[in-house]
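EI: anyone free to look at a 455-residue chain?
SC: sure, send it
EI:
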Amino acid sequence: MIAVRDSFINSKSWRITKLLQKIYDFIRQNTMLRLFTKFFLSLKRKGIRVTVKKVVKYTYMLIKSWKVLSHSKIDYIPYESEYQENMDFSKFEPRVKAIVFYLPQFHAIPENDMWWGKGFTEWTNTNKANPRFEGHYQPREPHDDFGYYNLTDIETIKKQALLAKQHGIYGFCFYLYWFSGKQLLEKPLDLFLEHPEIDIKFCLCWANENWTRRWDGLNDEVLICQEYTDNDPIQFIYDIKKYTDDSRYIRINKKPVIIVYNPGHIPNLQNTFQKWRDCARKIGIGEILIWTCQTVNNTAKSLNIIKAIDAEVEFPPHNIWHQMISVKNLYIGEKKASIYNYKMLVDILEKQLKTANKRIKNPPVYHCAMMGWDNAARKDNYWTTFYAYSLKSFYKWLNLIIDNTCKYFENDKRFIFINAWNEWAEGTYLEPDKKYGYANINTLSKALFSLPFDN
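SC: here you go
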């Protein structure tokens, strides 16, 4: 085995691949080179007309960002929150059905032990985080009410579900790590399934990306890959039937909702989705609803799957990079980072929603909000954070998407999404932490129940 490995490492193809990676890293570090590369790739793939539109739009955003920054005299607080105790909102009725993305990587598995070291979980990344500029909120530590939990403990899952219900959350969207029949991190979901007394809805999001040694979805040093074999669509539906058959599974008009994280990664996409539908009818699931996430520039229009899916789901910070305003004059040392202004982002989104086309898109797009996204815990270099996060801005973002959803969607289709329930290493979580307690989840509930922010 060692001889095979050494032969591979010393091969010409490996040396070429490493050279290409160095070239890619150089381009990535140079803003002008990166923009020129995107320009020429767009010319090749989209043509001159679409490319010119993109350049005009990007230039407009740069000018707008510069004007806002140059004229703004606001001294932004890096992270504006306050400690709050848990509030029980059980007696109120939410305006929409809020679904929160749920990460199961809080328990050790043999694969992670082998790839990252014995006992690796998401807490491993979270624990090693340090602040990298003045006011940078790191590390993030869980509240003593939950602690550094292990999701093989059913009592933890019960406690999470109870907290979510108290705060008006409709359901969890569990990430499903499925690779041609092999599942990873499935234990929490299967435990949830074994305990029907846990009273909360749920659905699945197929996290259909390769697992690599990088945390940004790039195919560098692949640990386990998506093979997308001819039989995968059939086997996938068979494998998820035990979940969709559960009475708690999220449905609309009796049709279970299946979400795909990265549709652009799937070859023969329309054919795959048609096989899903055919197989689901054949094995007794019936009609299904296929929703795709707007990740890494994936949209139904760009992928030409408008007629193949039933809805899209926003997934910030994906696909809003061109709308985000960078923070200037912030010292971060020699490391590379992208630092954006959360408050300004919410202000831009507000203008977009207020001037948006006054009708439901085809396919419909479900809104999603995030908190102070920050992946510095996962990455030593090339990390991204949102400066100027505040509870008030989060509350504002929530109200914008809730109002829009209530205005344009029928009662049984009024869903919003939150990224996320427990993305601790990405800095966006509703669970309580030591420093600010239950502030995030309390703020979500106030928006869901039309309660004043200062109450």
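EI: Residues 1-9, 65-73 have pLDDT under 50 and may be disordered.
SC: 👍
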